[in-house]
UniProtKB/TrEMBL annotation:
It comes from the Eukaryota. GO terms for cellular component: cilium; cytoplasmic dynein complex. One of its GO terms (biological process) is intraciliary transport. This is WDR60 protein. It comes from Podilymbus podiceps (Pied-billed grebe). InterPro entries: DYNC2I1, WD40_repeat_dom_sf. One of its GO terms (molecular function) is dynein heavy chain binding.
Length: 112
């Protein structure tokens, strides 16, 4: 609810990493690991901002932020095929109006 993200290992109750206030205090509504690139995850906040984290590039801050203008995005789901090397990774965004918007991610965040 405060924009904090914690990375846990299943065998420990203590986080390996913790990023406080990663969304400037906005609640996180969805977080999902990339299906095609293990070190990348995507975060959606309550203000319809998508943050891209690539832990191999920068483990302190997101490497990109994209605001989805004009309408409230309620949730997201990543689309792609694990193990495929074609570099296709998409994000399905569910908007408040009931519309679904699909956007493709740059290959640098999708390639294994």
């Amino acid at each position: 609810s405060d924009g904090s993200i914690r990375l846990h290992q299943m065998s420990s109750e203590h986080p390996l990493m913790q990023w406080n206030d990663s969304t400037s205090g906005q609640p996180i509504t969805a977080l999902q690991w990339a299906l095609t690139r293990p070190a990348v995850f995507f975060v959606l906040d309550a203000s319809s901002n998508i943050y891209i984290w690539d832990l191999l590039e920068n483990d302190l801050l997101p490497v990109a932020k994209q605001t989805i203008p004009s309408e409230n995005v309620l949730t997201m789901a990543l689309l792609g095929e694990p193990g495929k090397t074609n570099g296709l990774l998409g994000i399905a965004l569910a908007k408040e109006s009931g519309e679904i918007d699909i956007q493709y991610v740059k290959k640098k965040w999708a390639l294994p």
